[in-house]
Amino acid sequence: MEENPSLILASASPRRAQILRDAGIAFEIVAPRVEEIVLTGEPAEAMVLRLAETKARAAAASLPSTKTRVFILAADTTVVAGADGAMILGKPTSPEDAARMLRLLSGRTHRVLTGIAAIRLPDGEFRSALEATLVTFAEIGEDEIARAIESGEPFDKAGAYAIQGRAGRFVERVDGCYFNVVGLPLHRACVLLGELGWPAYSAPLP
């Protein structure tokens, strides 16, 4: 086994990249273009796992063939809300859409789901996992929603908020992995890579 096999993050998300950097993990970015759509009748859990795998495989396909060991990590995150817990909130498409999402989350508990996928090259061995976190919001006033939208923060975030940003002031409680809400459940990602032989981390799932 090589001493320093390469790790590739298959994501253009600056938040996912920052989580890895803050953890002292060296990596390169290969961000494939993947259309993030919900298939008819597809549950949120299946959607994030499918999209994470699609991103990982697209990144792998874009790389030149190699005999050197390379690990690819991809993720997809969504917010699930609504009385039945089945309303998928992706990235808002307009200020009105962002306001709608924030009103749905106001004063309620929602789920944040992240699908993680990892591939080891050159043999193509694959692993995936799902992480879920519950987040409870305080009531958000209309003036606060307006200020959030004016800041521009909601527009590239699932559920129209960033827990590490302005929306952090609304969060009353987090049950589960905080990093999952940011976009990459770090421990679970490291475990997944460790199962594939990534030497920087190897531990059994809890």
User: What is the CA-atom radius of gyration, in angstroms?
Assistant: 17 Å
Shape: elongated
The CA-CA distance between the termini, in Å, is 26 Å
Q: Which secondary-structure class do the elements indicate?
A: alpha/beta
Treating each run of at least 4 consecutive H or I residues as one helix, how many helices? Answer: 6
Average residue-wise pLDDT: 91
Are there runs of 5+ residues with pLDDT below 50, and where? none
The CATH class label is Alpha Beta
Descriptive overview:
- This protein has 206 residues and is an alpha/beta fold.
- It has a single domain, classed as Maf protein, CATH 3.90.950.10.
- It is 31% helix and 25% strand.
- Strands 1, 2, 3, 4, 5, 6 and 7 form a 7-stranded mixed sheet that branches.
- A hairpin with a 3-residue loop joins β5 (109-121) and β6.
- The chain starts with 5 loop residues before the first strand and ends in an 11-residue tail after the last helix.
- The model has no long low-confidence stretch (mean pLDDT 91).
